[in-house]
Every structure is written in C-alpha cells, then in structure tokens.
From TrEMBL:
Organism taxonomic ancestry: Bacteria, Pseudomonadati, Bacteroidota, Flavobacteriia, Flavobacteriales
Keyword match Transferase: yes
Keywords: Cell membrane, Glycosyltransferase, Membrane, Transferase, Transmembrane, Transmembrane helix
Membrane topology: Multi-pass membrane protein
Record domain ArnT-like N-terminal: where: 33-238
Protein's name according to its UniProt entry: Glycosyltransferase family 39 protein
GO BP, one annotated term: protein O-linked glycosylation
Keyword Transport in record: no
Any one GO cellular component localisation term in the record: plasma membrane
Length: 462
C-alpha cells in the first residue's frame, strides 16, 4: 500500500483496525465471571422469557440493581444473533462506534482529520475494554456524551434545533441506562460552566423545559412505573440504595447482587491516571502549560468542568470501580484533539497508546494457540461446551456461576452438599462442576473427571 495514502488516512485506518480488533476480541474471548457473564445471562433470560419489564438475575428472581436499557439492547441482539458472547456484546461496540462518529466533527472544526478523536478514544484502555464488555457503563457514557455535546451545540446562536431536543433524549435514555446518576454527572458541570461564563439564564432561552421535561418523562417514567408495579420495592432499593448508600456507605448490607468494594478515598484519580493513559497525561501537561490563558477559552473550560466533576464527585466514595471513569473519556479525547497541533513527539505518544491494543492482539493469538485462554479464563464456557450433554442434568456445587448459566442456557443448577450426597446415593446420572477450592467428600469412583480449568472441574457421575 502506498505510504502516502497510509500517512494521509492514518487515523481512519487506525480506527478501522482498532474496531476490527474489538470485533475479534468480542467474538473469541468468552464471557467472564462475575460481572460480564451476569449481565449477559440477565439479557439471555430476558430474551428467552420475553419479559422486557423486569430484568431477572435467574428465572423468577428480579434484578433491581440497574435499569434495563443495556439489558434490552443485549436481549434484542441475542434474539437476532443467538445466545453467544458476540451477540451480547454487539450493542456496546455499536454505541462505541457511534461515539466515534459523534465526536469526529470537533476535529474537522480544527482542520484536523475526522477520525483523530476516534483514534484517541479507542486507544484509551478503559474505552477499548468497554467497547466489548457487557455492562451498563458504555450506555451511560453514550448518554452523558449525548447530553453534554447537545448542551454545547444547543447553546450556540443559530444552533440546529435538533440539539435542543437531543439533550432531553440523552437524559431520558440515561435514566433507563443507569438511573438518576445521569443528572448527577451532567447537571453540575453544566451549572458551573454557565456560572463561569455568565450564561446561566441563557440556558432557559435555548432549551425549552416545557417541551423537554415531558420528553424525558415519556421516555423513562413508564418503565419505572411498570417495574414497581410488577416487583414492589424496586424504587426504594434502586433509588435510595444504589444511588446513595452504595456510594457513601461501603458497609451497606443491602446490596443484593455483589459485595461492598472497599477502596481508599480518592482512588478514582488513580483509576483515571491508569486507565486513561497516555492521553490524560497529555491533557494534564497541556493544561498546565496553558494555565494562564486557558481560562479564556469557553470550549476548553467546558471540557474541563466535564472532565473534573465526575472524579471530584466520587472522591469521597469508598465503593467504586474503575469503569466509573467512563463518562469522562470523551472530554479527554476532545481536549487532546484541541491541543493536537502543538503536541510534540506525536509519534511517540501514538506508539505508547498502541501498546495495549497490540499486546491484546498478540495475547489473543498466543492464548488461542496454546489453549491458555481455555484454561486460564474465569469462565465455565469451555467446560460446558466441550463436555455437557443437555439431555442430562447439570449441577454446580454450592453457588452456580453466571457463565455456567449462560452457556448451558439456564440449565445449570446450584446444589448443596446434602443434595449431592442424595443424588450419588440414588445412583443418578448427571454432570457437576466443582470449584477446585471446594472439598467434596461425596466424590467416589462414580465421578469421572472430564476436564478442568484453572478454577473448576467438570465431572460426569454415573
């Protein structure tokens, strides 16, 4: 291929290859326990039962921790493409691609390549990971991006009216993606920017709340109403528990679906430095260099308020994980784009940014050819797909894994020590997955070891 062509279209080619890498990873990497396999199984059950009101963590057991937007997307994809990891992950890849196209215009305004921001964002480790992970964070990121960019565009004189309504679409979808957190992550930076630029009252001139608020309500409230009607108690658990106690009380005992994540105060800043490298370091360097003049640029100030608010908000929380930086990945990419022309050693920074994608590709190749993926992955996919006969019962000693539920299409059943002893004494035929760390006294000559992974073993009992 002509080197001139590659140089001219470097970022477009880079975006294509990075998306292709994510497609390959989405296809060949199994769903991992616990979080990703859990969300995928909730979507699979939704598609199977056709219950699009109440997400279920198991048949008949409601999942109250998150609203349904991400589950809806994965469930619809599973209905079209089947119950597999690629289908479950596809919506998040499509949302990520949509974000790439949404932010490209901000490069062309600077007379830079359209795909430059997309290349930057796809080489941010946190974004690249979540372009192919079944979770609620990518949908929330898309909604916060839609809200913030719609606000920026809508505040312009003679702005396209589309933006004045897209912001309310973003709020409504955000309520369905992860709940009221959409307001917490977007309204404060908008408020602070409007005060800084003395444009607070202009907001009400550019955005018609009498039309916008009903749009938000029409999008989100019907599901909240029907969810509470079908499973009373949901509103109290989700609004009070998940939005307040979860973040400010690390010992909250009401968490039905996980465990409190004990983290040091301020850990969100370390997550930001680690999972957004090398681009967050570029932003810090440029802002420091222009610290005396940057305050006069309303666009940069807007992006800074957007970037800084989320980690500031979560600084006082001890219960959080690294995907909480997802909503501020876009302003990082746009700030780098803004300072791109004056960035020295571009090739070096690009090279550093490509290290993780390249390592991911070669790790996949090595893991595939050496079977390390099958053995080391935190999943029961291979144990089930290579050994399980769905005409015979499948049990999981103690608490079944979400991956065993997904890959057995809901046939994996938890079994206690007493129940296992009873089955063995009755000479039943069945499969059972047993974690290696569990000591099982019932194992005898009737247990035939079929295969094992690093963590689990699958037996056939005759």
């Amino acid at each position: 291929m002509n080197t001139g062509f590659i140089k001219k279209h470097f970022f477009a080619i880079g975006v294509f290859l990075l998306v292709l890498l994510r497609v390959i990873l989405n296809t060949f990497i199994p769903l991992m326990d616990k979080t990703e396999a859990r969300y995928a199984e909730i979507a699979r059950v939704m598609a199977e039962t056709n219950n699009y009101i109440t997400p279920q963590i198991d048949y008949g057991i409601p999942f109250w921790a998150k609203p349904p937007l991400s589950t809806w997307l994965s469930a619809m994809s599973i209905e079209i493409f089947g119950a597999n990891e690629f289908a479950a992950r596809l919506p998040y890849l499509l949302l990520s691609i949509l974000i790439v196209f949404l932010i490209g215009k901000y490069a062309t305004k600077e007379k830079l390549p359209f795909y430059l921001p997309g290349f930057i964002i796809l080489t941010i480790p946190q974004f690249l990971i979540h372009a192919g992970v079944v979770s609620t964070d990518t949908a929330l990121m898309f909604c916060t991006t839609l809200v913030m960019l719609s606000f920026w565009e809508g505040m312009k004189e003679y702005a396209n009216k589309m933006w004045k309504y897209l912001i309310f679409l973003g709020f409504g979808l955000g309520l369905l993606a992860k709940g009221p957190i959409i307001f917490i992550l977007t309204l404060p930076p908008i408020f602070f920017w409007s005060l800084y630029t003395k444009s607070f009252f202009k907001i009400f001139k550019h955005f018609n709340l009498l039309i916008g608020l009903p749009i938000v309500a029409i999008i989100a409230l019907p599901w909240y109403y029907f969810a509470e009607q079908k499973t009373p108690g949901f509103i109290d658990y989700f609004i009070v528990g998940e939005h307040f106690k979860r973040f400010f009380d690390s010992s909250w005992s009401g968490d039905k679906y996980g465990f409190p994540k004990q983290q040091p105060l301020g850990i969100i800043w370390l997550f930001l430095l680690a999972f957004a490298l090398p681009w967050i370091q570029v932003v810090i360097g440029k802002i420091w260099k222009h610290r005396k003049t940057v305050k006069t640029n309303s666009w940069v100030i807007f992006l800074l308020f957007w970037l800084l608010w989320t980690p500031l908000f979560f600084t006082i929380s001890k219960s959080l994980i690294h995907p909480y930086i997802m909503p501020i990945i876009v302003p990082i990419a746009l700030l780098v784009t803004h300072f791109w022309k004056e960035l020295q050693q571009k090739k070096l920074v690009i090279g550093i940014a490509l290290i993780i994608p390249v390592l991911a590709f070669f790790a996949l190749i090595a893991g595939t050819f050496t079977n390390k993926i099958e053995y080391l992955s935190k999943t029961d996919k291979y144990l089930i797909e290579k050994n399980y006969d769905n005409q015979i019962p499948l049990y999981y000693y103690n608490t079944k894994s979400y991956s065993s539920q997904f890959y057995s299409k809901g046939k994996s059943k938890s079994i206690t020590k007493e129940e296992l002893e009873k089955l063995v004494n009755n000479s039943n035929t069945f499969f059972i997955i047993i974690p290696k760390k569990k000591k099982v006294d019932s194992i005898n000559d009737s247990f035939v070891l079929l295969e094992e992974s690093k963590k689990n073993q699958i037996f056939k009992v005759n």
